[in-house]
Amino acid sequence: MKIGGISVGTYGPYDGNYGTHCLQLDFGPLTAWFSYRTLVAFQVLGHARVVHENVWGPTTGRHLNAIDNCAKSARVPAAQFEQLYTEQCGTLLAALSLAANSPKLLTLLMERVGENSQGASHG
């Protein structure tokens, strides 16, 4: 689904309803990956992909494997994930007039996209 300059899709070998738990958001130079409604990875154009270490469980672990092709040793702990997000996305989001520098912003955006897609009619 594409809304303006935002593209929302799925990642990994999932289909049907299960695929809705594996959302990928492309927004200009930013790509963000979600497991359920949690931001678990992101990539800003010109930077390496940043993937959060698995602190959730086996299902999110499978999602992370789909994002980074099982590169578990490259995953970063929460504090480093937040720091890299702030460094790479904070300036980008400020430039886009989205005054925030927290991954929670993208999580809230995905919640809104989910709310909007649930109410949309398909015909």
Helicity range: 25-40%
Determine Rg (CA atoms, Å). 14 Å
Number of strands: 6
Mean residue pLDDT: 80
Shape: globular
Count up the domains: 1
Distance between the termini: 15 Å
Poorly predicted ranges = 116-123
Largest sheet: 6 strands, antiparallel
Order of helices and strands: EEEEEEHHH
Give the count of helical stretches: 3
Strand order of the largest sheet: 1-2-3-4-5-6
Given helix and strand content, the structural type is alpha+beta
Query: Per DSSP, what share of the residues sits in E-state strands of 2 or more residues?
Result: 15-25%
Characterization of this structure:
The chain has helices at 58-68, 78-95, 103-119, and strands at 2-3, 6-10, 22-27, 30-35, 38-44, 50-51. It is of the alpha+beta class and 123 residues long. It has one domain (2-118). Mean pLDDT is 80; it is low at 116-123.
Write the layout of secondary structure elements.
Blueprint: E1 2-3, E2 6-10, E3 22-27, E4 30-35, E5 38-44, E6 50-51, H1 58-68, H2 78-95, H3 103-119
Antiparallel strand pairs: 1-2, 2-3, 3-4, 4-5, 5-6
